[in-house]
Structure to design on (437 residues):
């Protein structure tokens, strides 16, 4: 698959590189695994003087030996003797950058924790000593959010406050997904687009796998996912094991419950027979795997809330793959595929709501987008989008089947919105279905 989009991210990286010609820059690039970070920097720095260094889980001496060979080959930096400590390696880089401008890219930077946690203090010391006269464009990338946040956002960590630029690479927008689909299958259907969104969420690697395999329809995508050699069957486990470590089994249980629809705190505590508050907080704030949904404009301390898996692929994986690992291990993938078909329509109904909510937010016309429901559960609106500056908004009912939509019912629900919260907003009412994708 060819390279798509990322114009704004490329512009940021090139601006930082240009700035480093005068004074060193330190960029932190975060993003979930497979979102396209490596492809981004490879594309950006084609033809530019740079060295790409992947932090593998080797010993410190072995890693530094590989790094030394790379900078000698890619940057022409001559090093006498064999470097065995990261401090010595990084000092060579910083000293060289006093004389000339170049880019160093560390991929999976958080892996240095497992090699030698003291390395971050050594980087701090050398950066503080040299960066004012340096011309280094330093880029650190990482996919384990919890560790990257700890390294750069915990004020007790040595690299806190050192980066000059920090941003996250997000999955493709819906408009880009449509562009990719048009290139491969101009006559794709809304059902095909919904399935692509549900399985990939716009994650570049997942989209590439499906497009390169010629899986342009809903049926082909689901069949591909359920093949014996499918990359997707183990991907969810691999992703989460990286994040969770020793407490993985508890987090897996919580996420499976949420995916199945037990998404209230009381439901989760009851099912596991234990207070899961700390775990849920970690999933939301440290791992960024779930979000706590509240009725839009509700008070911050509102207890009317539910949890939802935010990543589309993980949401699907924990619903349809994780609970049935025994089928995967025994190779009974036809049963797995049959179960997906059985529950697909119901599951994808919420996916369709999330699709339109994301599309509306990406339009740039609204400051907040979400759902609304009352305490009694008698009135629920699938999407409310608000512009808090000009007090306009959209209220929408969303269904897969357009015949099940009722404009009259939507009007009734909107009339029940609390005037104290929504009275100043002028709403446009919409009914949306698969046909409107």
């Amino acid at each position: 698959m060819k390279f798509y989009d990322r114009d704004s991210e490329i512009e940021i990286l090139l601006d930082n590189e240009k700035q480093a010609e005068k004074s060193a820059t330190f960029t932190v690039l975060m993003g979930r695994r497979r979102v396209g970070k490596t492809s981004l920097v490879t594309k950006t720095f084609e033809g530019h003087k740079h060295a790409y260094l992947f932090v593998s889980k080797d010993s410190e001496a072995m890693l530094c030996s590989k790094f030394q060979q790379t900078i000698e080959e890619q940057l022409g930096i001559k090093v006498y003797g064999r470097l065995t400590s990261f401090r010595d390696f990084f000092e060579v880089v910083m000293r060289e950058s006093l004389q000339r401008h170049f880019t160093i890219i560390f991929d999976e930077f958080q892996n240095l924790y497992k090699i030698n946690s003291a390395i971050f203090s050594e980087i701090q010391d050398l950066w503080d000593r040299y960066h004012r006269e340096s011309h280094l464009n330093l880029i650190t990338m990482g996919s384990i959010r919890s560790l990257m946040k700890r390294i750069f956002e915990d004020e007790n960590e040595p690299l806190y406050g050192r980066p000059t630029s920090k941003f996250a690479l997000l999955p493709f927008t819906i408009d880009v997904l449509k562009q990719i689909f048009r290139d491969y299958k101009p006559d794709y259907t809304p059902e095909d687009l919904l399935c692509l969104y549900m399985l990939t969420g716009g994650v570049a690697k997942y989209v590439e796998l499906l497009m390169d395999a010629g899986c342009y329809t809903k049926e082909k995508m689901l069949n591909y996912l359920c093949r014996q050699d499918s990359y997707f069957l183990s991907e969810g486990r691999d992703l989460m094991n990286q994040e969770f470590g020793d407490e993985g089994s508890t987090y897996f249980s919580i996420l499976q419950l949420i995916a199945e629809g037990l998404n209230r705190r009381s439901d989760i505590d009851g099912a596991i027979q234990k207070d899961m508050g700390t775990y849920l907080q970690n999933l939301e704030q440290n791992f960024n795997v779930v979000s706590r949904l509240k009725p839009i404009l509700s008070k911050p301390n509102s207890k009317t809330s539910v949890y939802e898996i935010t990543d589309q692929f993980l949401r699907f994986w924990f619903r349809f793959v994780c609970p049935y690992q025994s089928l995967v291990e025994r190779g009974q993938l036809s049963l797995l595929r049959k179960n997906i078909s059985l529950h697909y329509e119901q599951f994808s109904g919420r996916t369709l709501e999330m699709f339109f909510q994301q599309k509306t937010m990406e339009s740039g016309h609204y400051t907040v987008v979400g759902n609304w429901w009352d305490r009694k559960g008698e009135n629920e609106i699938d999407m409310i989008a608000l512009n808090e500056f000009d007090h306009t908004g959209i209220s929408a009912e969303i269904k897969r089947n357009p015949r099940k939509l009722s404009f009259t019912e939507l009007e009734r629900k909107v009339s029940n919105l609390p005037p104290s919260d929504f009275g100043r907003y002028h709403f446009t009412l919409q009914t949306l279905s698969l046909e409107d994708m």
